[in-house]
Amino acid sequence: MPLAFRNGGFAFGIVGTVISGIIYAHCVYLLVSTSRKACRRSFVPMLGYTETVENVFTHGPRGIKKYTILARRCTDVQLLLNSYLLICVYLVFIGNTLRDIVNHDYQLEWDTRVFIFLAAVPLIFTTQIRELKYLVPFSAIANALIITAIGITMFYILKEPITLENKSMWPAWNTLPAFIGTVMYALLGIEYVLPNENKMKRPEHMLGNCGVVNVAVCFITALYTIVGALGYAQFGEDTKGSVTLNLPANEALAKSTQLLTITAIILSTGLINYVPTDILWRKVQHKIHPKRHNFAQIAFRFGMLVLLTAIAVGVPELEPFVGLTGSISGGSLVVIIPAVIDTVFRWPAGDFGRMNWILVKNVLVLVFGLLVLGIGTYFSVVDIIAIYEKE
Question: Coiled coil where (predicted)?
Answer without folding.
Answer: none
